[in-house]
Amino acid sequence: MVPVSHVLALSVILFGLGAAGFIVRRNIITIFMCIELMLNAVNLAFIAFSRYLGDPDGQIFVFFVIVVAAAEAAMGLAIIIAVQRNRQTLSIDDLDSMKL
Amino acid sequence: MATHSDLPLLLLMTLAKVVVVLGVLLTAIAYIVWMERKVVAHIQSRWGPYLVGPHGLLQPLADALKFLFKEDIVPDEVDRPIFWLAPLLAFTLAFLSISVIPFGESITIAGHTIPLQITDLNVGLLFVLAVTSLGVYGVALAGWSSNSKFPLFGGLRSSAQLISYELSLGLAVVSVVLIAGSLSLREIVEQQRGLWNICKQPLGFLLYFTAAVAETNRTPFDLPEAEAELVGGYHTEYSSFKFAMFFMAEYANMVTVSCLATSLFFGGWLGPVFGPPLVRSLLPVLWFALKVLAFLFVYIWIRGTLPRFRYDQLMGFGWRVMLPVALLNVLGTSLIVAWRSV
Amino acid sequence: MIAPLFYIFAGLAIVAALSVVLQRTPVYSALSLILVLCSLAVIYLLLGAQFLAVIQVIVYAGAIMVLFVFVIMLLNARQESPTDHSLFARRLGLPLLAVFLAEVIFVVVGHFSGTVFAAGATFDGGPGAVGGLLFRNYVLPFEVTSILILVAVMGAVVLAKKQL
Fold first, then answer.
1. Are residues C67 and C136 in the same domain?
2. Would the N or C end of chain C have less CB density within 10 A of its end CB?
3. Which residues in chain B touch residue C50, judged by CB atoms under 8 angstroms apart?
4. Same domain, yes or no, for B61 and B100?
5. What is the rounded distance in angstroms from the CA atom of residue C19 to the CA atom of residue C16?
6. A4-90: CATH topology
7. Could you give the percent of chain B with pLDDT greater than 70?
8. Which of B196, B125, B194, B133 is nearest to B159 (CA)?
9. pLDDT band per the 50, 70, 90 thresholds, residue A6
10. Of B47, B69, B91, which marks where a domain is finished?
């Protein structure tokens, strides 16, 4: 059988990669995808703990995370389309009009 | 549950089943193409393929050879990795969902009872829906990677169409699941021993079949590859074997959808069974094949009869007619199921 | 049987996640993310969460990511050009991230070293069990999410439409 720590380590690695991508990437769509990656890493941890503790609540939580992620993707992508329409760019470096 | 000593045997048996099913499916696809050309030809008062073999029966073989020997043209500005990936993806996914469909009850060889199904999942139906929902990528990516306007339009249209009609398809299937109380296709078929689901869910079947025709990009919903306006749609830039893969994927999807319709609404392999043990175990497979064949004929019949929708009509129909009716159907079915169980 | 499968798909997930972060073309990132999602679905299956594994493929890979690919195609997002505007984020963000991850790994390995999952699943993650729980213990959150989705749909239409 697989040790619990290995599954959790996988979750941490995926979360770290997602966070690093969030910092490094410049394209809004890619940044958004890195957020999805982080959400999935957390989901994996939830399911691992659910299995480890024998508690089904973790799986219910993952269900809700997936549902909320769907709503979030619909909204986020609509915002991205609006941004592209108004600014003709997808790079976050060019979207700095609210910076001091 | 299989013990460890059974494991190699189980793997071997599954492998054998996969090989047999793939072989049958590929041959069937070749002859569905032949059947389609024949039936459409007769609808249009023509003869159809007649020259290769008696009644053109060897035409599929000739077609396959032609596809293999054609020049494989890759346009200059395409996105090469994805241009390759798209037909592979379409092809693989189309063949994957057949693995949970039960063809018959079980067959006993040398004391081993072998269920006539590659694998029976307790979430079998959801598995089919999952694989179908991934099928969009083949088409969308083909359209995008070709870097040409007609394929891009075809790809965009088809992603929108597949997403829209997937909802109605899923809801139509949900009403059957409500009645059967199971997601395993084997149990759904078993539960129809008394009365086929088509009698309990006529509206559900109508919704399912309409959505399924749209999901497989067939006329009258073949907007993604509408020849008259989009040249060839998403596979305009494809040639030779890569095109053949799209072609086979489309027909494999038709077979899957027909198999699913048979299992969900028309009692799957159920039918009168008689005779010695071997006939007794093979007869259900025959019933299943006949029912699937009838569906495929209806598919071709529809193609030969109905004109194509306009794009806005297609989307309007999907969202304003199909979806509300499917929701009402689910609501009504669940009310009846709940009322009965009280 | 389960352990080798886990390591194969864990490795696949990590490689694909790296590719999500490192690819410059959004479509490649999206495809790699789909690969991550599918390999995670297999791992969910190995952990006994069958229903969530299928939902992961249907909703995440089959609906959310289709939306991403669709938008990438619609906006024709090609290669991203590298810029040097974000040195601050890189110089401060990445070290802080490294510290955070080191801390988490330290805690995880320290706390769970040597702990192995129990052999038999204590909870059946099939559709029946999850559904029962969802409609008995969690009816209110379930209904609230349906309102959330309705709001999201309306918001998306309002935002993405050119004129109302």
1. no
2. C
3. 122-123
4. no
5. 5
6. Helix Hairpins (1.10.287)
7. 95
8. B133
9. confident
10. B69
> In this complex, is the C-beta atom of A60 within 8 Å of any C-beta atom belonging to chain C?
yes
Q: Can you list the positions of beta strands (E) in chain B?
A: 106-109, 112-115
Q: Is C148 on the interface with A (CB under 8 A)?
A: yes
Residue B285 and residue B155 in one domain: yes
Residue C16 lies in a domain: yes
Is B129 within 8 Å of chain C by CB?
Answer: yes
**Are C73 and C4 within one domain?**
yes
Length of chain B: 342
Shared domain for B178 and B319, answered yes or no, is: yes
Give the chain A residue nearest C151 (alpha carbons): A71
pTM of the model: 0.87
How many Cβ pairs within 8 Å bridge chains A and C? 241
The answer to whether C70 faces chain B, any CB pair under 8 Å, is yes
| Residue-range definition of the domain harbouring residue C19 | 1-79
Orientation angle between helical segments A4-24 and C26-46, nearest 10 degrees: 160
* SS3 label, residue A1: coil
In whole angstroms, give the CA distance from residue B24 to residue A89: 51
Q: Do B94 and B231 fall within a single domain?
A: yes
Above pLDDT 90, what percent of chain B?
7
Domain of B324?
72-341
Q: Tokens 């693995």 sit at which residue?
A: B99
In this structure, the answer to whether residues B161 and B108 fall within a common structural domain is yes
What tokens were used for B44?
């249009």
Amino acid letter, residue B319: W
- Last-in-domain residue among B49, B69, B89: B69
Per the listing, tokens 């974000």 go with C86
Question: What confidence score (pLDDT) does residue B327 get?
Answer: 92
Residue B41 lies in a domain: yes
Closest Cβ opposite residue A68 in set C21, C109, C148: C148
How much is the average pLDDT of B28-46? Answer: 88
pLDDT at C118 over 70: no
Distance between C140 CA and the closest CA of chain A, angstroms? 12
Give the amino acid at B275.
G
Name the more confident of A97 and B331.
B331
Task: Report pLDDT digits (tens) over B101-137.
Answer: 888 777 777 667 777 777 777 788 888 888 888 888 8
Q: Cα separation of B287 and B264, whole Å?
A: 15
How do residues B197-240 score in pLDDT, each as one tens digit? 888 888 989 999 999 988 887 778 777 666 666 666 777 777 77
| The pLDDT of residue B186 | 86
Say yes or no: C126 contacts chain B, CB-CB below 8 A: yes
With respect to residue B15, please indicate whether it lies within any of the assigned structural domains.
Answer: no
Together in a domain, B172 and B303: yes
- Residue C145 distance to chain A (closest CA, Å): 7
Number of domains in chain B: 2
